[in-house]
C-alpha cells in the first residue's frame, strides 16, 4: 500500500459539451405576457468551475469547486457528486448544498470524481448542469512490489504490531517504511521501532503513547 506524496492530477475546465436547458420565466419578469409561452430564451447552464482537491494526512481528500448560478436560479442549489476507482460505474453519490466534499479514500488506485449543480425541483427555473470531472492518478511503481498480508494487532491496549510480507515482485533488497496519521496530530508520523526478520523490515511496533486508540488509524507502508 503506497501513497505517493506528490499526487499528479488533471484539472478540468468546462466539459466539451454543455447541457442545453430551458428556464421558465423568473417571478416578476414583465417580458412574459398572459397566454405567451412560459419559457424564456434557452440558457446554457455550465458545470461547476475550479474543481480541485487537497489531501490531509494519508487518505483524507477534500474536493472543492465554485459555481455561479444564472440569474434565473432563485431557489436552493444542491450539488450532486460521485466518485469511482477502477469501476466503469460511478458510486457513492451524495447531494448537498455545500461547495465541497471530504472522503477517506484509497490512494493506491486512481480515483475519478465528478460534480454537477442541481436546482431544487420546487424552483421551476432550471434543472441541472453538466458534469465537471477530476482524476487523481495512482502512485507510480509496480503494484506487485507492494506489501502483502498486511495486518495490525493491538495487544492489551499497550502497543500495536503491524506486520507484512514483502511484495511478490519486490527486489530482495527492498526496504519498506511505515507512516501513520490520526486526526488529532498535525502531520504524518513515522514508525520509530521496526520489526526485523532475517535482516528485513517486516513490521512496525507502536507504543501506546504514540497513538490515540479512540481515533481512526490511517497507515501507509511503502
Automatic annotation (TrEMBL):
Matching SUPFAM superfamilies: Fibronectin type III
Record flagged with keyword Iron-sulfur: no
Residue span, Interleukin-13 receptor subunit alpha-1 Ig-like domain: 46-143
Record Pfam families: Il13Ra_Ig, IL6Ra-bind
Cited Gene3D superfamilies: Immunoglobulins
Cell location: Membrane
Record carries keyword Magnesium: no
Subcellular location, principal: membrane
Record domain Type I cytokine receptor cytokine-binding: where: 149-221
Keywords, ordered alphabetically: Glycoprotein, Membrane, Receptor, Signal, Transmembrane, Transmembrane helix
Membrane topology summary: Single-pass type I membrane protein
InterPro entries on file: FN3_sf, Ig-like_fold, Il13Ra_Ig, TypeI_recpt_CBD
Extent of the signal sequence: 1-30
Domain of life, source organism: Eukaryota
Any one annotated GO CC term: membrane
Name of the protein in its database record: Interleukin-13 receptor subunit alpha-1-like protein
Biological source species: Callorhinchus milii (Ghost shark)
Amino acid at each position: 500500500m503506497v501513497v505517493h506524496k506528490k499526487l499528479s492530477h488533471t484539472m478540468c475546465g468546462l466539459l466539451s459539451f454543455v447541457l442545453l436547458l430551458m428556464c421558465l420565466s423568473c417571478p416578476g419578469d414583465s417580458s412574459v405576457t398572459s397566454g405567451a409561452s412560459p419559457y424564456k430564451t434557452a440558457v446554457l447552464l455550465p458545470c461547476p468551475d475550479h474543481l480541485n482537491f487537497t489531501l490531509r494526512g494519508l487518505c483524507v481528500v477534500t474536493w472543492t469547486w465554485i459555481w455561479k448560478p444564472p440569474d434565473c436560479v432563485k431557489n436552493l442549489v444542491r450539488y450532486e457528486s460521485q466518485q469511482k476507482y477502477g469501476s466503469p460505474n460511478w458510486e457513492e453519490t451524495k447531494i448537498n448544498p455545500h461547495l465541497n466534499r471530504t472522503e477517506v479514500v484509497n490512494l493506491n488506485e486512481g480515483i475519478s470524481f465528478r460534480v454537477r449543480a442541481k436546482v431544487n425541483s420546487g424552483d421551476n427555473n432550471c434543472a441541472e448542469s453538466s458534469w465537471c470531472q477530476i482524476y487523481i492518478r495512482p502512485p507510480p511503481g509496480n503494484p506487485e512490489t507492494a506489501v502483502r498480508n498486511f495486518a495490525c494487532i493491538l495487544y492489551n491496549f499497550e502497543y500495536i504490531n503491524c506486520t507484512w510480507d514483502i511484495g511478490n515482485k519486490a527486489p530482495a533488497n527492498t526496504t519498506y517504511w511505515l507512516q501513520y496519521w490520526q486526526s488529532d496530530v498535525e502531520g504524518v508520523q513515522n514508525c520509530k521501532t521496526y520489526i526485523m526478520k532475517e535482516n528485513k523490515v517486516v513490521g512496525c511496533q507502536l507504543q501506546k503513547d504514540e497513538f490515540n486508540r479512540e481515533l481512526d488509524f490511517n497507515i501507509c507502508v511503502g
